[in-house]
């Protein structure tokens, strides 16, 4: 009996000991270092950067990534200061990613001062504006603004002033336009990035009127744009289409990231309604459908001349314009055939919106070869256009209200 009682006590003592060991192990597992808790730690702290690799890489290369002169928290403070004018960004995926960023960042880099929920929220806002540059440094990005309205509310019919004016005077009127003729809305993120390509020669009196009309017109539409005046040097016949190809290539070189939409624009046409949005829809758009000098009537259904809009993709798919139309006429019809051949169709605003005023000028001599060239377009357009474009770039100058590209296109490609 005594032996049985002694055995029972020993068993209880053993169970107690076992429990004690288990409890200790649990404590160590959670707080200590005896057991390997790395899977748990990994789960708690490390995977977060994967979801945000494109905007923020901090977990594995912190010392290389932070700017050397600033401590991480100084950088964050910096970004907080900079983010104070910012408007919140919109999509929920970003929100999630950013909150993941901050949990990672807070643990690794942020001092005790940032421990309150309010400060954490502020830091999160700051971190949304940090981006990793190509050379691996973190810097503060521009605060993201809300998207501009698709159709700003104060658009409608406008008048045109055809009186001759001095370019110097026009330049003083639009200080908000940046050098090169660039503009992007200050209070919202533009939906469209548009290059306005204007073939040009000997039309100085038109240039000032054009810029004086177009800048306020485009600014009102809240788009990001640049105006490119592409001047043909020399005395050969004017080649509007080839100049537009040059304008397409050269304007693209001027903008990091490039333009998405191209408006090919005669300098003598001025839009009469600001609802005529200078953007690029899914189909190439003929903009100048309704011109005062043509009694506001469309001359023929397939016309694509005057002012037209094409996306980067549309323009490259049709191989740009032909380079072969020297003298007046035909090059726009040629573009129409290319568009049709690539299964696009022409879009237009209604005639009450697509209205333009035409400035006076001498009529140029029509190109007698245009019909013969047009009869070949459908068969030859892949071998005549952007793919065969050759020109000499004489100079590119960024003036206040436009980028001036002077080119010698005489090489008959
Ligand atoms: C020409 C086009 C021009 C149109 C309207 C056509 O005959 O080929 O280039 O745009 O007339 O003037």
From TrEMBL:
Swiss-Prot/TrEMBL GO biological process terms:
carbohydrate metabolic process; glycosphingolipid biosynthetic process
GO molecular-function terms, A-Z? galactosyltransferase activity; metal ion binding; N-acetyl-beta-glucosaminyl-derivative 4-beta-N-acetylgalactosaminyltransferase activity
The cofactor required is: Mn(2+)
Occurrences of domain Galactosyltransferase N-terminal (ranges) = 150-281
Tell me the superkingdom of the source. Answer: Eukaryota
User: Transmembrane stretches, by residue range?
Assistant: none
Q: How does it sit in the membrane?
A: Single-pass type II membrane protein
Region annotation (Disordered) maps to: 81-103
The residues forming the signal peptide are: 1-25
Tell me its family: Belongs to the glycosyltransferase 7 family.
Q: Give the protein's biological function.
A: Catalyzes the transfer of galactose onto proteins or lipids.
Name it: Beta-1,4-N-acetylgalactosaminyltransferase
Query: Taxonomic lineage per UniProt?
Result: Eukaryota, Metazoa, Ecdysozoa, Arthropoda, Hexapoda
Gene of origin? LOC113400606
């Amino acid at each position: 009996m005594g032996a049985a009682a002694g055995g029972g006590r020993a068993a209880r003592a053993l169970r107690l000991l076992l429990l004690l060991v288990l409890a200790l192990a649990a404590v160590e597992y959670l707080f200590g270092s005896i057991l390997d808790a790395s899977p748990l730690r990994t789960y708690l702290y490390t995977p977060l950067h994967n979801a945000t690799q494109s905007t923020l890489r901090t977990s594995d290369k912190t010392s290389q990534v932070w700017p050397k002169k600033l401590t991480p928290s100084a950088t964050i403070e910096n970004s907080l200061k900079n983010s104070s004018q910012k408007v919140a960004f919109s999509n929920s995926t970003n929100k999630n990613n950013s909150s993941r960023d901050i949990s990672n960042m807070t643990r690794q880099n942020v001092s005790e001062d940032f421990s309150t929920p309010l400060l954490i929220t502020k830091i999160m806002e700051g971190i949304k504006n940090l981006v990793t540059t190509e050379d691996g440094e973190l810097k503060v990005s521009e605060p993201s603004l809300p998207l501009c309205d698709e159709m700003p509310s104060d658009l409608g019919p406008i008048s045109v002033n055809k009186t001759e004016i001095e370019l110097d005077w026009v330049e003083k009127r639009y200080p908000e336009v940046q050098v090169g003729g660039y503009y992007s809305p200050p209070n919202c993120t533009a939906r469209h990035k548009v290059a306005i390509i204007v073939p040009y020669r000997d039309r100085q009196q038109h240039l000032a009127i054009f810029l004086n009309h177009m800048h306020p017109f485009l600014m009102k539409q809240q788009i990001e744009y640049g105006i490119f005046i592409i001047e043909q040097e020399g005395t050969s016949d004017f080649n509007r289409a080839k100049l537009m190809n040059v304008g397409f290539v050269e304007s693209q070189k001027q903008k990091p990231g490039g333009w998405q939409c191209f408006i090919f624009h005669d300098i003598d046409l001025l839009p009469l309604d600001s609802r005529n949005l200078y953007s690029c829809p899914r189909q190439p758009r003929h903009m100048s459908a309704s011109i005062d000098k043509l009694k506001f009537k469309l001359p023929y259904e397939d016309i694509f001349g005057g002012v037209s809009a094409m996306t980067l993709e549309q323009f490259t798919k049709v191989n740009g314009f032909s380079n072969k139309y020297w003298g007046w006429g035909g090059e726009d019809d040629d573009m129409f055939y290319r568009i049709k051949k690539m299964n696009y169709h022409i879009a237009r605003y209604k005639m009450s919106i697509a209205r333009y005023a035409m400035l006076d000028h001498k009529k140029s001599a029509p190109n007698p070869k245009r019909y013969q060239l047009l009869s070949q377009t459908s068969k030859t357009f892949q071998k005549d256009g952007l793919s065969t474009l050759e020109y000499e770039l004489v100079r590119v100058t960024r003036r206040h209200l436009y980028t001036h590209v002077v080119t010698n296109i005489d090489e008959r490609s």
